[in-house]
Amino acid sequence: MKKIIDENLDEFESGGNGKEDAETARKLFEQFRGNLPAEENAKPRPKKKFPLFIPVAAAVLVGIFIGSFLFSDVPAARAFKTNVEQFFTSIFSPDTKIEEDGQQIDEYQSVEDLQKDLDFTLPQFTWIPEGYELSSVQKGESPDESKIISEEYLNPTMNPLGYISISIVYMDNSSETQISGLWSTREYISEEINNIPVTISSDKPYSSIFFYRDMYQISITTNDNIDTLKNIIANIQ
After folding, report:
1. Is 216:236 a contact under the CB 8 Å cutoff?
2. Which helix (H) or strand (E) holds 10?
3. Which among 31, 129, 131, 229 has the fewest CB atoms less than 10 Å away?
4. Edge-to-edge strands, sheet with 196-201
5. pLDDT tens digits, one per residue of 51-106
6. CA distance 141 to 35
């Protein structure tokens, strides 16, 4: 401000109408300038705050995007939600996991441990060929609330790795008589083993499916030979 006054005072003196006018103007300018605060004491002009609506709007848009992603039914979103559910489930229940479709799977160290958690008696597979070891025991639930038990056996000495996969569906005295789970692209043969009508695939991996005691639908799959499969069925108790 002082600089502007000085520049205008010099211009007024050089372009004025007379010495007296110039002198009067100088006195007025000097008086006005004396009332101005010193440069170092002058208050800084307040800075304009950055508008808040921009970061707020950005946060809202990000929230909408994340919400849309989580509530969508795309595979990536389902996988993300499943991972989150598995994380929290693993904290509170270490032996439980959540499948991508939302199904809860409980894992056990042995068939005996699983049996303690059931209100029905599992069929016993009293013969499993030598070399096979139990690798997994799980309990799940189907959409119609039927219990699904899975037992997995592995034989690390076989090449390729030998496996026996057993699935037991407990139907709770269901009137269901239609066997499900057959692959239409494979050929099956029907025979009776130990008074049990059984359907068996005609080639590897050998698969069988049958009812047992009118309460269980059992399916067994193995890449071992067909005699192994038939012996397992014949020794169910």
Report:
1. no
2. helix 2-15
3. 31
4. 96-98, 104-108, 133-141, 147-155, 162-170, 216-222, 206-212, 196-201, 188-193
5. 666 777 777 776 676 666 555 555 555 555 545 444 444 444 445 554 544 568 89
6. 89
Structure tokens at 36: 């101005």
User: What token pair was written down for 226?
Assistant: 């067909």
> Could you tell me the two tokens for 89?
């489930």
Distance CA 215, CA 175 (A): 9
CA–CA distance, 166 with 111 (Å, rounded to integer): 12
Closest CA to 182 of 148, 209, 206, 202: 209
Residues 25-58: tens digit of each pLDDT: 666 666 666 665 555 555 556 555 556 667 777 7
